[in-house]
């Protein structure tokens, strides 16, 4: 069964700061609490149903959210993917920095640039598993490509890191500075810090809550990126309305008892989490 997911976000800021009033005394780390959850069913079978999650928050310096125009909000430690370099007997993770380039289609205009410090090994690809000592790497599963273990990705290799590749890598462009652009099947993990709101689903089975992994089942998650709530270093409080849409809610969960874990993280990687009360879809249905 194919499940489609999309995330829509609405933020309502409830606290403003005026020179006539003392600002509220909030911690710089975010504090969140459960407000409510609703389930909206669309009349058409082919349309997605929506879980609407309301989370109240407080933050002392207002640093929740990412600016989609700011490349720093897509760079280490907020980079989307973590890649790996070979080490003797293993691999080690390396981060990336997002940069803008001028390149013809289909090369994207924003690409990740490899960041690494010595010792340097070769960039880990699907081919690395065939090398002696790297049989522990998972085999390439075409059905999971871009979901687990391996992804076909563009990556800029700066001049000082050219030793991380060789002639077996697929170089698609080079620059006068000595950097090269590769497009290859790279071993990777999703970076959890890329998201500033993460949602985990649990269903009750034999009286105990057990996690249901959307990623394992459908190569998708309901994690997301909240936009910047403020561009000033000032206290904020409010309610985040977070929409999660899928064709699969009723077919997957029907009358099952569910609960959600929600984690919200600010730009200093401080976070807070809550677990919702247990619910069934029918009990929280609003239409």
Written account of the structure:
- By secondary structure, the protein is mainly beta.
- It has two domains: 6-66 and 196-275, Immunoglobulin-like (Sandwich), CATH 2.60.40; 71-190, no CATH class.
- Helices cover 3% and strands 40% of the residues.
- It contains two helices and 14 strands; from the N terminus they run βββββββββββαβαββ.
- It has helices spanning 214-218, 249-253, and strands at residues 6-13, 31-40, 49-59, 81-87, 90-100, 110-115, 150-157, 171-174, 180-190, 197-205, 208-212, 236-246, 258-265, 271-275.
- The strands form three sheets. Strands 4, 5, 6, 7, 8 and 9 form a six-stranded antiparallel β-sheet that branches.
- The radius of gyration is 22 Å and the shape is globular.
In short:
With 287 residues, the chain is mainly beta.
Describe the main β-sheet briefly. 6 strands, antiparallel
Q: What is the general shape?
A: globular
Tally of distinct domains? 2
Give a count of the beta strands, DSSP E runs of length 2 or more.
14
CATH topology of the largest domain: Immunoglobulin-like
What's the helical proportion of residues?
A: under 10%
Which consecutive residue ranges, at least 5 long each, have pLDDT under 50? none
How many H/I helical runs? 2
Oligomeric state of the chains present here: single chain
Average of pLDDT: 91
Span between termini: 25 Å
What portion of residues belong to β-strands?
35-45%
The rounded Rg comes to 22 Å
Structural class: mainly beta
The H/E string reads EEEEEEEEEEEHEHEE
CATH architecture of the largest domain: Sandwich
CATH class of the largest domain: Mainly Beta
